[in-house]
Amino acid sequence: xxxxxxxxxxxxxxxxxxxxxxxxxxxxxxxxxxxxxxxxxxxxxxxxxxxxxxxxxxxxxxxxxxxxxxxxxxxxxxxxxxxxxxxxxxxxxxxxxxxxxxxxxxxxxxxxxxxxxxxxxxxxxxxxxxxxxxxxxxxxxxxxxxx
Length: 147
Fold this sequence. Notes:
Number of helices: 2
Number of strands: 8
Strand order of the largest sheet: 6-5-4-8-1-2-3-7
Structural class: alpha+beta
Distance between the termini: 25 Å
């Protein structure tokens, strides 16, 4: 299964994106501000708890999280970051670098009441893919001049 996340430019410290599963729109995302500087070490641009993870391709697994419980959507091997989970929330105050999922968004937040259903939907698709023996990856794209 291939998940893709296409980010919009950050606004007011927030980054909205669109998440697709196998090229079909699934939900919106909310992350902290994109601070990434191409060719520069993560340690030089990351502000702990206030920075979106770097663009790139990562594996996704369902893992136990002390904070979010069993079968938490986890993005693995992110340079300079640990414990990146896709989880519920509405504003950047609800994340420390993790993508939040929601069915509706504004320019800077997810609409209340739409986040948990989005997490359940994505988690369900990932779980089905894993039961079929498929690997799951996510490609995260930063905005371009054309975005």
